[in-house]
Amino acid sequence: MNTNRTVTTPVETDVIVIGAGPTGLCLGIALLQSGIRTLLIDRLTRGQNTSRAAVIHARTLEVLESLGVTENLVAKGIHASRFSIRDRDRTLVPIDFQRLPTEYPYALMVSQATTESLLLDRYSELGGRILRPCAMQSLTQDDEGVTVSLDDGSCHRARYVVGADGMHSTVREAVNIPFVGASYPESFVLADVRLSGELPHDEVILFFSPAGMIVVAPLPDGQHRIVATTDLAPEHPDANWLQALLDARGPEHHPLKIREVIWGSRFHVHHRIAAHYRTGRVLLAGDAAHVHSPAGGQGMNAGILDAAALAKALNAALQGNTLALTQYGDVRRPIAMKIISLADRLTRLATVRPRLRPLRNSIMSLLGHNPRLRRRLALELSGLNYR
Ligand SMILES: Cc1cc2nc3c(=O)[nH]c(=O)nc-3n(C[C@H](O)[C@H](O)[C@H](O)COP(=O)(O)OP(=O)(O)OC[C@H]3O[C@@H](n4cnc5c(N)ncnc54)[C@H](O)[C@@H]3O)c2cc1C
Fold this sequence. Notes:
Elements: E1 13-18, H1 22-33, E2 38-41, E3 55-56, H2 58-66, H3 70-76, E4 78-80, E5 82-87, E6 90-96, E7 107-109, H4 112-125, E8 129-131, E9 136-141, E10 146-150, E11 155-163, H5 170-174, E12 179-196, E13 203-209, E14 212-219, E15 223-230, H6 239-249, E16 257-274, E17 278-279, E18 282-284, E19 290-291, H7 299-318, H8 323-350, H9 357-367, H10 371-382
Parallel strand pairs: 1-2, 1-11, 2-8, 5-13, 11-18
Antiparallel strand pairs: 3-7, 4-7, 5-6, 9-10, 10-11, 12-15, 12-16, 13-14, 14-15, 16-19, 17-18
Helix pairs in contact: 1-4, 1-7, 2-7, 7-8
């Protein structure tokens, strides 16, 4: 902690949150609801209008309920009550969310753009402020607070600062917290498309095949999300390229046809976690603290749950219990490690070498007959086992 610096800027607010993505917005809402003065800062003029994280799990919906967002969200999304792992036409592992102990026994399929827009509406409704477009460049902290310097030359000062500024977090780098982990060699392809063919409207399907894996999930407005691992993916996959992928990996008896590609992207996947979530008065949450493969659709969900836990910890700290800030990391970091491990297991299963794939499918099919195991997986995917 820098204690030698002469502080000239007065503390103007309780908490500054760097990053107005889903994590930062949720944190902002939760803090404002507790009467804590909050300022969000984001480098972009407006939120990114891309689909990205398309699934919200049951535990996240429970938590978003207390932020006043769930009712609007569930009205906008598809309620997928089943998830299955298939080998082309054969179901290996069927997972049913309908019997989960929650008011939301499904995975809500909705684009991240819609989720962020509803979060922003709620934050604004509470009178929340966002400074944008402004990028944080550096920060210094002392015994009283933290001062952040922005690229427009201005400085802002708060009791605490949270880095909710994504995978390449400037906040994490400013306080020298190592981001430990590695990258997968394969790239992932993601696309929102319109399909024709026989497909259940309330089921997320993960197809394993000798050629690799592909996920097909329903989205609102008659769209479907496709996610696949591949060695050589184009930056913007077109209909022909995606069709070849579906033909090689998707259902054989009732093939699916791509009618339109609405959005597509290729990205490399990392699995990394911050060595710790706190340095003095600076904390991390969301992708700034942990990133992993999209298998299991946990990334944004984990960030939202971090935000809810951190809001409580900051509330306690502002009332004198600063230990709560350390406890936040003690609780949330092991959960992120478990999520990384689940995503890693699913990714390794999906990308297993071709000669081992028949063995993998036989083992999965056997395990898929075990109802206790299926329920455990449902609880893990929905986040309900971390209540
Ligand atoms: C192509 C793609 C597909 C994905 N698919 C899925 C999926 O299927 N399921 C899933 O769960 N997750 C998925 N994810 C991950 C998901 O999008 C993230 O987990 C989620 O966005 C994390 O939210 P966040 O608020 O922590 O960070 P971000 O959404 O990254 O938001 C960070 C914010 O900080 C701002 N910022 C960054 N640096 C600064 C700075 N120096 N100063 C000010 N502002 C700054 C950025 O502008 C941004 O608005 C996907 C991501 C990508 C890129």
